[in-house]
């Protein structure tokens, strides 16, 4: 069974008289343990699709079913709760909270979930260990390099063991060496921790690191030269 | 459950130190605002207290019908006290002595050692029975005045505009062409008596070449008996007397000062209003630079309510710190500050009401200052805000 089903999703923006439709009836299934890279020209709608799956944007039509829940039907508040439990978001620029230490930034998503303080501490320590930043736990973002900040961002995304981790150009603002570090870290998250990943990138080499590569072209989603389909067809 | 979904308390606190200068300036501004509120409320409270503390419901004042409401203009025969004792039932007796106090009451220029110009003072000629009626008057230093002596209320110097050391026991004051030696000082539970100078009645009458009285104050067995005195005065039209409960007399004065109190509250509202703008300005600045961060928190799963709360927390913390500083300054510098006033002097009071109002204003500043900028930030869709720089 698939973990994420995007079913016939359309997204459009009114731009004066004309309508931009970056996603025009797109379908996609992501399975547990998948590592999917999403590529396409600038403005093709990659971020839009990723944000829809992450539950921070609304579809014009279609359904997005994640772990059995159609998130397009959730209210705003419920959607926030849902994100806390199911989504790990890695941003292009790390988006860490400047007044919180690395440890506290990583802990932030856990404060939304029911768990004991001891459990929380254990999880934060494991996540920081996974990104190799245990010695930096008490540092503030401004005391770290861009690559280190992005690793804290990844620790924050994986700490709650979300259903899926989405990353929007996670290496977009890093140099080559740091990019390599981050990409291999993401591969390890997929390989060793068995987490499901969806990564938007405009870098073909980066995209090639994923297990599956899909492309957005003129509102359609392509994989291996064919339009992607959802494997689960819901009869509702 | 609610607590679990809130942002850490530390987040709000540390955000205040993000722009230390801006926070410090706002803190200073809010402190001044709250201090101003404290001073105005202290003024209103002091005025109210001095007027309400003066009147007892079981004390009746008998003075002349023709004097309108102003006892200073009243003149009644010297035998009125004896007449009242003989004609009215219900006057209280303490240790066999009838609680009536014949008094002469006048405003006059009083010269002290260091005053260049004599100040306007209030002098009351009393007999030794006065404390039986005005039972809140308490000698705190020295002794009851003998012939040629006076005792002064603890705020009499403020009323005169003189320094406190001019009116210590042993000093001399001059009024109505006679020099008087201060024999004692008294308090009167914050009432208007505290700004008066009390002299022996007979002495004052001799000095002024008067034989009449301004009023007779009598303490009744109960507040109901005040009406009996009133009836007596109405029946004996020939005496041209009028009886009013002391509490009613000062309540009518208080009515007189209602516009002043209203004005005071208007000032409180205006000052608090200006404080809201200071808070708003800070919070708009604080939120504007943090659009992406607030969107990130939402993307992670924090509800908008939680983010709103942390912003309100931030602003309220700052305002409360300001309020705390203002209350400390207020208690140290403002409380007890004497204010001269037409009918006497009174003290500014930083009491529980003042502090409650100040804290209320501070809380209001925090909430009112944070909500509009927070609401503005929350209206932006997360996907757009997340791209903000
Ligand atoms: N809020 C908006 N209002 C109007 N049009 C928008 C809005 N957000 C996105 N678009 C349009 O939707 C299209 C897809 O945008 P999106 O950000 O998903 O592109 P992208 O593939 O992520 O591009 P890039 O590689 O440059 O990040 C673009 O043409 C963009 O102009
Ligand atoms: Mg994009």
TrEMBL record, chain A:
The keyword Nucleus does not apply. Keywords: ATP-binding, Nucleotide-binding, Transport. One of its GO terms (cellular component) is membrane protein complex. It comes from Aeoliella straminimaris. Belongs to the ABC transporter superfamily. Macrolide exporter (TC 3.A.1.122) family. One of its GO terms (molecular function) is ATP hydrolysis activity. This is ABC transporter ATP-binding protein. Residues 4-236 form the ABC transporter domain. InterPro entries: AAA+_ATPase, ABC_transporter-like_ATP-bd, ABC_transpr_LolD-like, MacB-like_ATP-bd, P-loop_NTPase.
UniProtKB/TrEMBL annotation, chain B:
GO terms for cellular component: plasma membrane. It is found in: Cell membrane. Its main location: membrane. Keywords: Cell membrane, Membrane, Transmembrane, Transmembrane helix. The chain crosses the membrane at residues 24-44, 262-287, 308-333, 353-371. Residues 23-229 form the MacB-like periplasmic core domain. Residues 266-381 form the ABC3 transporter permease C-terminal domain. It is a multi-pass membrane protein. The keyword S-adenosyl-L-methionine does not apply. This is ABC transporter permease. It comes from Aeoliella straminimaris. The lineage of its organism: Bacteria, Pseudomonadati, Planctomycetota, Planctomycetia, Pirellulales.
């Amino acid at each position: 069974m698939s973990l994420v089903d995007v079913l016939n999703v359309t997204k459009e923006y009114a731009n004066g008289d004309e309508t931009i439709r970056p996603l025009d009836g797109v379908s996609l299934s992501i399975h547990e343990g998948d590592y999917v890279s999403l590529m396409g020209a600038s403005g093709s709608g990659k971020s839009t699709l990723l944000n829809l799956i992450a539950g921070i944007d609304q579809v014009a039509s279609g359904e997005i079913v994640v772990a059995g829940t159609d998130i397009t039907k959730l209210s705003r508040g419920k959607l926030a709760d849902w994100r806390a439990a199911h989504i790990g978001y890695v941003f292009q620029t790390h988006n860490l909270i400047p007044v919180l230490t690395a440890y506290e930034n990583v802990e932030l998503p856990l404060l939304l979930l029911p768990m004991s303080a001891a459990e929380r501490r254990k999880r934060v320590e494991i996540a920081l260990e996974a990104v190799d930043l245990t010695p930096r736990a008490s540092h503030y973002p401004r005391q770290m390099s861009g690559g280190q900040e992005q690793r804290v961002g990844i620790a924050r995304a994986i700490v709650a063991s979300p259903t899926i981790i989405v990353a929007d150009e996670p290496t977009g603002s890093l140099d080559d060496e740091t990019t390599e570090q981050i990409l291999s870290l993401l591969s390890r998250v997929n390989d060793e921790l068995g987490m499901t990943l969806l990564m938007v990138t405009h870098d073909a080499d980066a995209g090639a690191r994923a297990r599956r590569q899909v492309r957005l072209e003129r509102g359609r989603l392509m994989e291996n030269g064919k339009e992607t389909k959802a494997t689960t067809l819901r009869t509702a | 459950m609610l607590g679990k979904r809130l942002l850490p308390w530390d987040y709000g606190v540390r955000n205040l130190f993000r722009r230390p200068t801006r926070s410090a300036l706002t803190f200073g501004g809010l402190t001044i605002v709250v201090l101003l509120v404290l001073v105005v409320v202290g003024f209103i409270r002091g005025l109210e207290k001095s007027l309400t503390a003066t009147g007892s419901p079981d004390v009746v004042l008998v003075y002349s019908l023709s004097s309108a409401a102003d006892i200073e203009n009243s003149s009644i025969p010297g035998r009125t006290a004896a007449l009242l004792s003989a004609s009215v039932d219900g006057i209280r007796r303490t240790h066999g002595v009838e609680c009536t106090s014949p008094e002469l009451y006048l405003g006059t220029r009083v010269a002290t050692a260091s005053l260049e110009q004599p100040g306007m003072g209030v002098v009351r000629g009393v007999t030794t029975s006065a404390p039986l009626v005005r039972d809140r008057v308490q000698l705190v230093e020295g002794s009851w005045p003998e012939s040629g002596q006076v005792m002064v209320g603890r705020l009499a110097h403020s009323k005169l505009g003189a320094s406190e050391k001019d009116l210590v026991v042993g000093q001399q004051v001059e009024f109505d062409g006679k020099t008087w030696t201060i024999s004692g000082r008294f308090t009167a539970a914050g009432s208007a008596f505290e700004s008066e100078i009390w002299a022996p009645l007979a002495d004052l009458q001799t000095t002024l070449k008067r034989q009449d009285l301004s009023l007779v104050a009598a303490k009744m067995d109960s507040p109901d008996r005040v009406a009996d005195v009133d009836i007596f005065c109405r029946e004996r039209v020939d005496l041209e007397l009028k009886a009013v409960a002391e509490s009613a007399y000062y309540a009518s004065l208080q009515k007189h000062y209602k516009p002043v109190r209203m004005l005071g509250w208007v000032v409180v509202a205006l000052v608090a209003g200006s404080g809201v703008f200071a808070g708003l300005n800070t919070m708009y600045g604080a939120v504007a630079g943090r659009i992406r961060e607030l969107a990130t928190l939402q993307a992670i799963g924090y509800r908008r309510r939680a983010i709103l709360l942390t912003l309100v927390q931030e602003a309220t913390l700052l305002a409360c710190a300001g309020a705390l500083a203002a209350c400390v300054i207020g208690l140290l510098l403002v409380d007890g500050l004497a204010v001269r006033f037409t009918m006497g002097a009174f003290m500014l009071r930083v009491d529980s009401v003042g502090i409650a109002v100040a804290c209320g204003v501070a809380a209001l500043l925090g909430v009112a200052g944070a909500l509009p900028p927070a609401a503005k930030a929350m209206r932006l869709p997360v996907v757009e805000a997340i791209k903000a720089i």
